[in-house]
UniProtKB/TrEMBL annotation:
The lineage of its organism: Bacteria, Bacillati, Bacillota, Bacilli, Lactobacillales. Belongs to the tRNA nucleotidyltransferase/poly(A) polymerase family. Bacterial CCA-adding enzyme type 3 subfamily. It comes from Lacticaseibacillus jixianensis. This is CCA-adding enzyme. Pfam families: PolyA_pol, PolyA_pol_RNAbd, tRNA_NucTran2_2. Its cofactor is Mg(2+). ATP binds at residues 27, 30, 111, 154, 157, 160, 163.
């Protein structure tokens, strides 16, 4: 009865009226049943993509090769995916080719965990072929079918298990956990990008401690990029009692700090975005200087990295008083080079020659202004430059 589901009901009914089946599936069903906020409403249907396109006037081929068509309804897009099986797994990775099927059971069977394999009809009927509701109530992640076989089909599911453990605060059922332990090495077959997506969600989850502990205990960590030799550092990270991380940069900064791996090396290997790499590098650099860091270090970090570093430091040391450092930052005379009352142009207009010397002079002035040794005033800075 969530409004996002309500809004999609006319679509479901229209598919049924055309003689096909349609169900809500996937994470939104799981999360709604748990009373959590939901993200995207996924609809699964026995209708083939071409049939969906005949039923609805306005559609977009968002992933038609995988069977997904977006249906536009009152300006909102709903992804309708044809029931499918994924046979012919090669190399322990998700197959590229899928087979469309008419049977809901086959579609639910290929899903990873029982709590992700529930389907709900527009009238609220829950189709629960693998006891997902019981597992939902017991807060358990259990592979659909034989966990060993399922992790062989797609080794990413092992990372998804620890990710969901962290996100949902669920336990991993014993046979499922044992199969992760047995097959952890298969993680090496998975692309860094896919592993990283799950790892980031793990870091951001509410039960990060449990997720990271399983990541360690199952040996998955040993097959994740650059983390193989980092058992002690990961155990430290897993042991932090800090509240849930709000942004990935906090987790990555702590990883850099605890492992001693350079931020750019670690995050580039994990194929993270350049913005995140820069932010993490700056935050880790400052973190290494906390709890005491001079004004120049605070200035160089900048507001965003300061925020991340303070959160990371508070995670490492609950007694740390970040407010004092934040105040010192706020009180800096300037926060950006562009706020300097003098620049290279002004220096040259006053007889300075262009060249490396000029840059050094400007840097000296910038430091002096940041430390409060010189006022941020053009005449005073010119005079100081001439000395
Ligand atoms: P989130 O809230 O993070 O989106 P989700 O459960 O919706 O979680 P998705 O990656 O969006 O996860 O996948 C949607 C659904 O597709 C899952 O609930 C699951 O049923 C199925 N699924 C996704 N990835 C896999 C996989 N690797 N193996 C088997 N089933 C999968
Ligand atoms: Mg989803």
């Amino acid at each position: 009865s969530h409004p996002d589901f309500q809004a999609a009901i006319p679509i479901m009914k229209k598919i049924e009226e055309a003689g096909y089946e349609a169900y809500f599936v996937g994470g939104s069903v799981r999360d709604a049943l748990l009373g959590l906020p939901i993200h995207d409403v996924d609809i699964a249907s026995s209708a083939y993509p071409q049939e969906i396109k005949q039923i609805f006037k306005r559609t977009v081929d968002t992933g038609i090769q995988h069977g997904t068509v977006m249906v536009l309804h009152h300006g909102v897009g709903y992804e309708v995916t044809t029931f499918r099986t994924e046979s012919g797994y090669q190399d322990f990775r998700r197959p590229d080719h899928v087979t469309f099927v008419r049977s809901l059971k086959e579609d639910l069977q290929r899903r990873d965990f029982t709590v992700n394999a529930l389907a709900v009809r527009h009238d609220g009927t829950v189709i629960d072929l693998f006891d997902g509701l019981a597992d939902l109530r017991a807060k358990v992640l259990r592979a659909v079918g034989n966990p060993h076989a399922r992790f062989h089909e797609d080794a990413l599911r092992m990372m998804r298990a620890v990710r969901f453990q962290s996100q949902l605060g669920f336990a991993i059922e014993a046979a499922t956990a044992a199969a992760i332990k047995d097959n952890a090495a298969l993680l090496e077959k998975i692309s860094v990008e896919r592993t990283a997506t799950e790892f980031t969600k793990l870091l951001l989850g509410r039960d990060r401690q449990a997720g990271l502990t399983t990541f360690l205990d199952t040996g998955l960590y040993a097959h994740a990029p650059l983390l193989g030799g980092q058992k002690a550092a990961l155990a430290q990270l897993a042991g932090l009692h800090a509240p849930q991380f709000k942004v990935p940069a906090v987790g990555w900064t702590l990883l850099v700090h605890l492992t001693g791996i350079r931020a750019d090396k670690l995050l580039r290997t994990w194929k993270q975005a350049n913005d995140l790499i820069r932010l993490t590098a700056a935050a880790a650099k400052l973190l290494a200087l906390l709890p005491t860091a001079d004004d120049w270090a605070l200035y160089q970090a900048g507001n965003a990295a300061l925020d991340v570093a303070l959160t990371a430091q508070a995670a490492l040391d609950p007694a740390f008083d970040g407010a004092r450092v934040a105040q010192a930052y706020a009180a800096l005379p300037i926060h950006e080079k562009s706020e300097m009352a003098i620049d290279g142009k002004a220096l040259m207009a006053n007889g300075f020659q262009p060249g490396p010397q000029l840059g050094q002079t400007l840097n000296r002035l910038e430091r002096a202004v940041v430390f409060g040794a010189l006022p941020n005033d053009q005449q005073a800075l010119l005079a100081a430059a001439q000395q």
